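Whiteboard transcription, Tuesday session. T.W. wrote the C-alpha cells on the left side:
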C-alpha cells in the first residue's frame, strides 16, 4: 500500500510539472546522451493461520537492487546494460516458535533498449524492452535446496521526472512478457521447468530510483 501511495504521489507531481508550460518543447534526450541509474524494489508481507490446536505465521521480506548504464544511439533511444542483486527471506513460525527459514539470493544481468516520449518539459514516459537472466540459490535452514536459472523477455513501462539538468526520479511500473525457468532440487536430484506469459503488477516489478544524465 505504501508503494502504491508513493507511486501516486510521484505521478501527481509529474503531471503538475508536465502542465507548467503547454507551449514549451517536450523533454528530449539527444543522441550521444548517457545515463547511469540505481533503483530499488521492496517486498514485505505477513500471513497468519489460526486453527484450534495451532497457530502458523509466515513473514516475508525481500529487496532487489538494480544499476545500469545506457547510451543514446539516436534521439530518445538508448541501449543499456544492467546488473542486479535480490535477496528474500521467509520465516515460518508454529505456535510462536521458528519452524523453518528459507533464504534466496539472486544475481541478474539484463541488456535493454529504452525509448522515451516526452510529455512535458521535465517529464517523459518510457518503454523498456529487455532480456533478463537471473541465477538464484535457495537455502532452507542453512542447507542448499535449489538452484534456479530464469530468463525474462519482455517490456517495462515507466516514467522519468527530471529534477534538474542531470538528476531524475524514475519509476518502472510492472512488466509484460515471457518467463522461462529451470530449477534443480539438490535434496532429491529432481528438475522442474516453468514457462509463463503474463502481465505482472506485483511489488517485485515496481521499481523506484534515481538516474543521472550526462
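and on the right, the sequence the group agreed on:
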Amino acid at each position: 500500500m505504501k508503494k502504491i501511495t508513493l507511486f501516486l504521489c510521484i505521478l501527481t507531481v509529474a503531471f503538475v510539472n508536465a502542465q507548467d508550460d503547454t507551449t514549451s518543447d517536450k523533454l528530449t534526450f539527444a543522441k550521444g546522451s548517457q545515463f547511469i541509474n540505481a533503483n530499488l524494489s521492496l517486498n514485505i508481507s505477513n500471513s497468519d493461520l489460526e486453527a484450534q490446536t495451532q497457530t502458523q505465521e509466515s513473514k516475508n521480506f525481500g529487496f532487489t537492487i538494480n544499476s545500469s548504464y545506457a547510451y543514446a544511439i539516436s534521439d530518445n533511444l538508448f541501449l543499456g546494460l544492467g546488473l542486479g542483486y535480490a535477496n528474500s527471506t521467509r520465516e515460518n513460525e508454529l505456535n510462536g516458535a521458528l519452524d523453518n527459514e528459507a533464504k534466496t539470493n539472486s544475481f541478474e544481468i539484463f541488456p535493454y533498449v529504452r525509448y522515451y516520449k516526452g510529455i512535458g518539459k521535465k517529464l517523459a514516459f518510457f518503454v523498456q524492452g529487455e532480456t533478463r537472466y537471473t541465477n538464484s540459490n535457495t537455502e532452507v535452514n542453512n542447507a542448499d535446496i535449489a538452484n534456479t536459472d530464469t530468463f525474462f523477455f519482455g517490456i517495462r513501462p515507466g516514467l522519468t521526472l527530471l529534477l534538474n539538468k542531470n538528476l531524475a526520479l524514475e519509476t518502472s511500473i510492472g512488466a509484460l512478457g515471457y518467463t522461462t525457468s529451470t530449477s534443480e532440487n539438490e535434496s532429491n536430484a529432481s528438475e522442474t521447468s516453468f514457462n509463463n506469459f503474463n502481465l505482472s503488477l506485483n511489488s517485485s516489478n515496481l521499481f523506484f530510483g534515481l538516474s543521472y544524465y550526462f
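Someone added at the bottom: Helices lie at 2-18.
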